[in-house]
Amino acid sequence: MTGPSRRALQRASRILLLLGVVLAVGVVLAAKGQSSGAAASPTTIAATEAPEVTLDRALAAGQPTLAFFHSLTCESCIEMTGIVAQVYPAFRGAVALVDVNVYDDRNQALVNRAKILGIPTLVFIDRAGRSQSFAGVMDAGLLRQRLQALAGGG
Fold it and tell me: Which residue segment(s) compose the domain that 66 sits in?
């Protein structure tokens, strides 16, 4: 492949990746926007409520919770955002989702409290408040199993 053809292919690949990211973010935002009464339920993420408040509310209610620590720019985080957007909707109502952008200043206390060392990190918290962390990209099947275990009390 010649230089200009290769550059055009690379440019097209980057555009497709960017479109995929935009689509994944849109799906997550749309999923968040489908809920109503954000202040009333720990399973809903309110745009005006800090994730730390959402997490504390879920923990106080004994709600199984997935805390998803990520950024909006790292490739692994973007991939994991798409997987969460694909799998989580089946568990809405049974498992709270706390979406934590680690580069948002309002989340720094929570990032420090959770001792997050790398991203993406998924923290699964059961009804008793016990947590297990997973760093990196988790495939959809394993995420589904972990959420099912949380939802079922396991």
Answer: 3-151
pLDDT tens column, 86-100: 999 999 999 999 999
Q: Which distant-in-sequence residues (6+ apart) come within 8 Å of 92 by Cβ?
A: 31, 35, 43
In the DSSP assignment, the letter for residue 136 is: S
Query: Does the pTM of the predicted model rise above 0.85?
Result: no
Q: What are the contacts of 85-90 at 24+ separation with CB within 8 A? A: 85/24, 85/27, 85/28, 85/31, 86/27, 86/140, 87/140, 87/143, 87/144, 87/147, 88/31, 88/147, 89/31, 90/144, 90/147
Contact by Cβ (8 Å): 147, 91: yes
| DSSP one-letter code for 139 | P
CB 93 within 8 A of CB 150: no
CATH value at residue 53? 3.40.30.10
Total of domains in the chain: 1
